[in-house]
Amino acid sequence: MRKLSKLIAAVAAMALLMAMSTSAFAADENTSPADPAPGKVSQGTVTIDGSSASGDIIGTAIPPQTQISKTEAENLVKEKTGVTVKANEEIVILDAMNLTYQENGSVVSVAGSTVKFTMAVPGVKAGTTVYVLHEKSPGVWEVVPCEVKADGTIEVTLDGLSPVYLAMIKQQANTDAAAAVTIDAAANKGKSPKTGF
Question: Tens digit of pLDDT for each residue in 102-113?
Fold first, then answer.
């Protein structure tokens, strides 16, 4: 029995020694994480200037240094739509992507065209209004309010394609502890605070 204990201790010590001697490889400081692969955004047929097109709308990541802030997005929604954000509400950015129109894997320019397509909005309830903030040219924005349909999609019509942000107005969680917890003093009279009996 004693020999078995010594054997187990020796094996455990060797395993610990090997784990401590294994070198960790840190990522090279000069490498940056790869952008996510382009993804298809459109569902169904894309329409360009009123005619059905054979390609798809593809979304890619917007570089962080060129993204707008939450405050800028909120101001754009307020300015362009006249919507009022109440004290218990906030504007939430659901997604941000650069949109292009592609046919057979090649980008086709749709500058100056009206592009209509349907896209999914995961996690948003039907009937919710999603605001599509579209940068038509540097510093020139259009904000398109779109209602989420029962199947979780919205129909979007934009003048050309470029960076877009999907935003919605959401109620903030109630952080007021006094309002969140109500104690019935009469019902708890004579009961132990620890057990409730």
Answer: 999 899 999 999
